[in-house]
Amino acid sequence: MDQLPHLLAAVQRAVRLRTFVRTLATWVIVVGCVSVLLTLAMPGAPRWHALLGLGLALTAALVRAMLRREQALDLVTYVDQRLNAGFALVATVEGGAHERTAAQARQALAGKRARDVRPKVWRGEWVGFAFYAAALLAVYGVPSPPPRRAPPGSELVTMGSTPALTRVAELPRQARDEAQRAQLQRAAADAE
Question: What is the mean pLDDT of residues 19-37?
């Protein structure tokens, strides 16, 4: 019976770790879906929301795991069932057990290690993490839209900044006759 507290502590740690993993796996699925939807709805927006969501998921999972407290008798019942002790451990811990029941409990605990009673932490949670990885690839794989171009004619052009317009203004000097000179002067005036 001396090793029972050690076994109970190992089970409690494994239950907390399993709670953390399951909560995180659940939250990253939600975060991945929301991130992909935000990226598709607003492709020009920054993509940091996927990593912020991961931080929130980690915080939520950590808080839930830290707040998880199992009752001692629940842990004893779990250990009893894992060792097939026939509720001898439960009866002994509750007190008032017959000597034969206490001997059966000691026999069930003989030579047992934490590995023999610890619950499994990983089951199908890896699917949630794989989904989040795929969502991250999708979020950062969706190309950003090209920058918007100004509509034609909305740019302000000055004579000092454009050598081509300077040449248009000098065209009337190169005219051969008066009609061509008048036409080139109108073009130069329009260019200014």
Answer: 93
Identify the burial level of 24 via C-beta atoms within 10 angstroms of its C-beta, where 0-12 means exposed, 13-18 middle and 19 or more buried: buried
Instruction: Give pLDDT, residue 151.
Output: 80
Report how far residue 192's alpha carbon sits from residue 186's, in angstroms, rounded to the nearest whole number. 10
Measure Cα distances from 151 to 6, 74, 147, 154, 156 in Å. 74, 71, 13, 6, 12
Check if the beta carbon of residue 8 is closer than 8 Å to that of residue 117.
no
Distance between CA 54 and CA 61 in Å, rounded? 10
Using DSSP, how many helices (H) and how many strands (E) does the chain show? Answer: 9, 0
Q: Give the distance, in angstroms, between the CA of residue 175 and the centroid of all CA atoms in the same chain.
A: 71
Average pLDDT over residues 55-80: 88
66-91 in b/e form (b: 16+ CB < 10 A) is eeeeeeeeebbbbbbebbebebbbbb
Residue 58 near residue 24 (C-beta atoms within 8 A):
yes
Can you give the pLDDT at residue 124?
Answer: 85
Tens digits of residue pLDDT in 94-107? 887 778 887 878 88
Residue 94 CB neighbours (<10 A): 11
- pTM, full prediction: 0.66
